[in-house]
């Protein structure tokens, strides 16, 4: 496949991904409107909106279209109430600090600028809700776009990337990506950041990944990708090129970028401490203010939501474990699949390339014949670097390293050009940590949306749906699972019934 034809194919696939993303959001919104019109909400308290404690809101003003305003406000349910309230009134109560500020800030900015002329017609709170819906659905479309581009870079196969992106567009947590939740913003910032990281645009990547930590607390884990990259680049500088100063600079740069990613979350904790603890007497302080390391987020999760290690392991929670079992099973299968493909790569954390036979015979990652990107974020030296333009120079294998360097034939090199199993390693390690956290620490039913932004799930799902080695029924099971959770989610969630 020539470079031009490959570029045309990627261009067509990009348009197709955007089309699926937009259509999937329209379907979700249509389902929400349908179920809301057919059923009565289980909890009708969504319309209750007391004035801000500061008294600065104008929610009580009359509007020209009260029925439309009421319909939008009534659709603000579950955690959406917190995000809209924060955007409207700021952080008024201790428990609201569990919700990080990126989404409320964006809602407030959009409602105060682009949608500000609508306030006289539907009111401030409805405009805030409308802004949240527009933001998240637009962010989802961009997240699908970046997932496709990231998948092409990692997998070197546009067809696999396309299937993975379409699966993401119809993922089982779709209802949250079209509601006023942080899933869309987090997916956009984390997947977009990883895309720029794989391209070698480290500054852009660092900013995007830092924003992911400003959207959700688990965004700080994305610093692990920077640490993984730094570990490999410093090793290459110190032990391959024998350049100690270069290795030190790599370590310092990696440390600063990792701190930059973690900083928004830490800054928000400091902001909460300043608002809740500073200025009060010792008797008035909350218990967490007196702790040696006063972490407001951990206290809120434990005190208000009962989050903690093994605290959810109760007989009465068995239905919630059943609800989360499909996504957890898919995650376990994903992890096992990739680790079994390249065990030596995972055991060595990518410092040893996979054996030639597995590298060339791995049918789970069909590889594109066209050349890969000019820069890949994680690099392991091997013969497949030819023509890739990687920043690391090619080198001869060190003594005793020959068994770990891929040396394919000319035809095989063309078929597998640019693909490196080491690029999969940090994604799987990240998924392992997320799965362990979801299963042992969090409310397990949240796993469906908590894991939904993890690219390996869609890469593995894409493989299952196209594999000739597996029965087609597994592909049907994945599609049925997605469709069922989309229908159930849009039905239950939008009407204030318990879901994930």
TrEMBL record:
GO annotation, cellular component aspect: endoplasmic reticulum membrane; mannosyltransferase complex
Pfam families: Mannosyl_trans2
GO biological process, any: GPI anchor biosynthetic process
Family matches, as InterPro entries: PIG-V/Gpi18 (IPR007315)
Protein name: Uncharacterized protein LOC107814585
GO MF terms, alphabetically ordered: alpha-1,6-mannosyltransferase activity; GPI mannosyltransferase activity; mannosyltransferase activity
Domain of life: Eukaryota
């Amino acid at each position: 496949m020539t470079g031009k034809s490959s570029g045309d194919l990627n261009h067509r696939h990009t348009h197709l991904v955007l089309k699926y993303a937009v259509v999937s959001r329209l379907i979700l919104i249509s389902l929400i409107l349908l179920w809301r019109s057919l059923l009565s909400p289980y909890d009708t308290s969504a319309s209750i909106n007391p004035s801000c404690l500061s008294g600065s809101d104008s929610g009580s003003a009359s509007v020209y279209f009260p029925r439309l305003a009421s319909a939008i406000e009534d659709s603000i349910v579950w955690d959406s109430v917190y995000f809209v309230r924060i955007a409207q009134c700021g952080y008024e109560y201790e428990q609201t600090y569990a919700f990080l500020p990126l989404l409320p800030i964006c809602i407030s900015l959009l409602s105060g600028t682009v949608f500000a002329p609508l306030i006289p017609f539907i009111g401030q709170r409805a405009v805030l809700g409308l802004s949240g819906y527009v933001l998240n659905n637009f962010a989802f479309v961009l997240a699908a776009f970046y997932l496709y581009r990231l998948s092409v870079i990692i997998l070197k196969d546009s067809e696999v990337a396309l299937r993975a992106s379409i699966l993401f567009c119809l993922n089982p947590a779709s209802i949250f990506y079209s509601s006023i939740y942080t899933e869309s913003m987090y997916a956009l910032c984390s997947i977009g950041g990883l895309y720029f990281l794989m391209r070698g645009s480290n500054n852009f990547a660092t900013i995007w990944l830092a924003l992911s930590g400003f959207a959700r607390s688990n965004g700080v884990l994305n610093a692990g990708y920077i640490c993984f990259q730094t570990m490999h680049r410093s090793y290459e500088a110190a032990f391959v090129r024998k350049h100690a100063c270069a290795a030190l600079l790599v370590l310092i740069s990696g440390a600063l970028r990792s701190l930059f990613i973690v900083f928004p979350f830490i800054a928000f904790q400091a902001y909460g401490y300043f608002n809740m603890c500073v200025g009060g007497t010792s008797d008035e302080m909350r218990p967490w203010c007196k702790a040696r390391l006063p972490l407001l987020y951990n206290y809120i999760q434990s005190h208000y939501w009962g989050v903690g290690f093994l605290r959810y392991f109760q007989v009465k929670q068995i239905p919630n474990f059943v609800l989360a079992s499909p996504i957890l099973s898919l995650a376990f299968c994903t992890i096992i699949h990739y680790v079994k493909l390249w065990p030596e790569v995972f055991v060595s954390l990518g410092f040893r390339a996979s054996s030639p036979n597995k590298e060339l015979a791995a049918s789970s990652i069909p590889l594109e014949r066209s050349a890969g990107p000019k820069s890949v974020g994680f690099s392991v030296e091997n013969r497949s670097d030819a023509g890739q333009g990687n920043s690391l120079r090619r080198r001869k294998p060190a003594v005793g390293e020959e068994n770990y360097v891929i040396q394919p034939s000319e035809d095989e090199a063309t078929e597998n050009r640019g693909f490196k199993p080491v690029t999969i390693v940090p994604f799987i390690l990240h998924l392992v940590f997320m799965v362990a956290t979801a299963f042992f620490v969090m409310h397990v039913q949240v796993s469906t949306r908590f894991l939904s932004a993890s690219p390996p799930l869609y890469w593995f799902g894409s493989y299952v749906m196209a594999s000739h080695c597996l029965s087609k029924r597994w592909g049907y099971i994945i599609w049925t699972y997605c469709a069922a959770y989309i229908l159930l989610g849009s039905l239950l969630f939008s009407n204030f019934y318990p879901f994930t």
